[in-house]
């Protein structure tokens, strides 16, 4: 019995950042089930070796089952009998699921992790310990494959991720149950684990047993696949993150610009992985969405793709423009009541300085070219015209933007300085209008608009 315990416990490697000498604080998500009871035994053994370590049990009552009160009583009795500190929480999962229009599983998970993260902060715990085992890992991979996944899905759950530690991810459920039986250790059984209406339960009860008949080591092999895929993903992360830094032309608060040529020079697989890392934070990217983004890179200049309500992509001649719409400040026309002044454009984080120049109008200025006040800054409008200084030609603003290769998504946001008659005087960062020059208007841009 002692050898079995030592054999199993020796398979668990302490995280590299744990501190046996000074002590680390662990928060164990404790349900009273076999996995968390096994882990509690492991920590009791660990505390004998490293007295400066500390472990706290955290239990959340979902109030979904008729025996939830009995489960909580078991958890409290276990903690008391083993001298372990216990923090409990509870929530109305059904009410939350109805309010948010999500499944019971999702609502339970959200509420449980909210409680655990809050308890982590309150207790200043270093690591949150979760009792996912090898069978859970195999089931997770099968679920990901059925739903459709990329390389991240093949990785399953990570042993370490942020503040989370899953120490028994390589230990099978059978070995855990055998250990508890040999030690005469009781645990609380969740009868909803037998309910086949839940996807994971169906995989566990119906699919995995059939796989084990084909190959008795199938669960272990599936788990090993996750481990291998996880290592591959770590390598891909380094490669792709390096490439992302290389192709990033500009990274502004509300827009990003990426070099297409460098990205498209890579193998299609790397292209897909880079796209996944660039935009996976905004929405779940399946292969179809990734292909739509890659196809955009080969489309005509100016074509746009609304990735989600927050992100708009535009294919430029040499770059891919990404507009983060929820970060775009609401524009309000800014009036300058005097001939001299300074205004700040928060969206671009630039200042515009306007001064009359002091010498007044040039002698050859026409009355029709005289500037009327107040001046204001606004966004471009349909039908705007512009006469670039020194050109002697009036052209549509939209045509001028095209000639300067300004992406359509950026054109709509370009600040335009106009006079009291709403005639354009200046496109900051591009050019002055002839009338601004004739009226000896001094215009200075502090900062940069749309750097390429």
């Amino acid at each position: 019995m002692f050898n079995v315990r030592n054999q199993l416990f020796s398979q668990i490697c302490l995280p590299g950042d744990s501190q046996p000498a000074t002590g680390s604080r662990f928060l164990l998500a404790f349900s009273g089930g076999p996995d968390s009871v096994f882990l509690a035994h492991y920590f009791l053994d660990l505390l004998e070796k490293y007295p400066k370590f500390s472990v706290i049990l955290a239990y959340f009552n979902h109030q979904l089952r008729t025996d939830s009160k009995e489960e909580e009583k078991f958890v409290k009795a276990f903690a008391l009998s083993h001298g372990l500190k216990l923090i409990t929480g509870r929530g109305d999962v059904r009410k939350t699921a109805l309010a948010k229009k999500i499944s019971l599983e999702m609502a339970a998970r959200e509420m449980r992790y909210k409680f655990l993260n809050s308890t982590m902060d309150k207790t200043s715990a270093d690591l949150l310990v979760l009792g996912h085992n090898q069978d859970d890992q195999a089931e997770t991979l099968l679920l990901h494959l059925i739903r459709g996944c990329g390389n991240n899905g093949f990785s399953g759950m990570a042993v370490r991720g942020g503040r989370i530690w899953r120490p028994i991810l390589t230990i099978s459920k059978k070995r855990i149950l055998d250990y508890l039986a040999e030690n005469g250790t009781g645990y609380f059984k969740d009868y909803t684990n037998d309910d086949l209406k839940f996807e994971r339960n169906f995989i566990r009860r119906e699919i995995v047993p059939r796989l084990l008949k084909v190959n008795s080591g199938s669960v272990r092999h599936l788990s090993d696949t996750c481990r291998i895929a996880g290592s591959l993903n770590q390598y891909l992360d380094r490669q792709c993150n390096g490439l992302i830094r290389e192709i990033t032309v500009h990274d502004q608060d509300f827009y990003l610009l990426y070099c297409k040529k460098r990205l498209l020079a890579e193998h299609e697989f790397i292209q897909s992985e880079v796209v996944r890392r660039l935009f996976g934070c905004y929405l779940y990217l399946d292969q179809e969405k990734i292909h739509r983004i890659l196809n955009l890179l080969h489309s005509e200049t100016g074509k746009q793709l609304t990735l989600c309500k927050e992100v708009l992509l535009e294919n430029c001649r040499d770059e891919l423009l990404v507009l983060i719409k929820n970060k775009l400040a609401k524009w309000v026309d800014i009036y300058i009541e005097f001939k001299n002044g300074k205004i700040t454009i928060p969206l671009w984080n630039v200042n515009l300085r306007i001064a009359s120049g002091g010498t007044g109008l040039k002698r050859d200025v026409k009355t029709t070219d005289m500037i009327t006040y107040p001046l204001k800054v606004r966004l471009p409008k349909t039908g705007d015209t512009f006469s670039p200084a020194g050109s002697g030609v009036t052209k549509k603003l939209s045509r001028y933007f095209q000639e300067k290769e300004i992406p359509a998504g950026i054109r709509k946001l370009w600040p335009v300085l106009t006079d009291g008659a709403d005639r354009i005087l200046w496109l900051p960062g591009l050019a002055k209008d002839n009338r601004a020059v004739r009226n000896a208007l001094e215009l200075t841009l502090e900062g940069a608009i749309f750097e390429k």
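Residues 93 and 110 are 9 Å apart (CA to CA). The longest strand covers residues 54-61.
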